[in-house]
């Protein structure tokens, strides 16, 4: 993979993380070896970041961009942006043994800010499920609450913040890492455990199943990660140690823990 940054066109870091996590979630719902011709994810309405995968070859050609390549490219791109504080327009060329099989473009959505127009011929993959609606989140106290999945009322998340704060980038990268870790597995396979640690070790996520008649699948695991990030962390602007009790029809069938890592990454 090669990465080209254009620092004259800047991007909002928080919007990059939000859009990247949305796209990683969509990739995690696909088969690991599924061929990708083109895929675009527009994040939550109001964000000005567009992420687009394209395959320069026709579907019948010999070279195929697959989900696995997209996951690796997206993850590396956002980690590189974070490490170099290079939140700007990016173009990544994805190659296998010297042959280009696709590209990732990260750019502003708004033409007025130097970006590209929203493609009219590619179906947007954005999940507009009203995650941030006023009815989806119930605040029980300053540190706890309950979130109902707007697309599946049987699935609820009871969360509790505790302990120390975590720097925002570490929380975002931990969510991204957890989704990338889950991506190789079929969404209907039981998820026993996901363990994800950020490259700098500032945050750790543990997702585990709990014995129950309802199987805790990777689809539920990745959905929980998305709901927690978009519906709780971003909405409340709260970054820190947290425990989430994942319930189906009121009975726990999974657990998630976000913990500050061994390195001293705290939000001031």
What attributes characterize this protein structure?
4 helices; alpha+beta; five-stranded antiparallel beta sheet; 268 residues
Notes on the protein architecture:
There is one protein chain. The strands form two sheets. The chain has a seven-stranded antiparallel sheet, covered by helices on one side. A five-stranded antiparallel sheet has the order 1-4-5-3-2, covered by helices on one side. α1 packs parallel to α3 (168-182) and α2 runs antiparallel to α3. It has four helices and twelve strands; from the N terminus they run βαββαβββββαββαββ. It is α+β, with helices and mostly antiparallel strands. The radius of gyration is 18 Å and the shape is globular.
Topology:
Blueprint (H helix, E strand, L loop, with lengths): L1 E9 L2 H16 L9 E5 L7 E5 L12 H18 L3 E9 L2 E9 L29 E3 L4 E5 L6 E11 L2 H15 L10 E5 L5 E7 L8 H19 L3 E9 L2 E10 L8
Helix pairs in contact: 1-2, 1-3, 1-4, 2-3, 3-4
Number of helices: 4
Count every beta strand, where a strand is a DSSP E run of 2 or more residues. Answer: 12
Q: Strand arrangement, largest sheet?
A: 6-7-8-11-12-10-9
**What is the typical, i.e. mean, pLDDT?**
84
Shape: globular
First-residue to last-residue Cα separation: 35 Å
The ordered H/E elements are: EHEEHEEEEEHEEHEE
Which blocks of ≥5 consecutive residues have pLDDT under 50?
112-135, 264-268
Helix content: 25-40%
Major sheet description: 7 strands, antiparallel
Oligomer: single chain
Structural class: alpha+beta
Q: Please tell me how large the radius of gyration is.
A: 18 Å
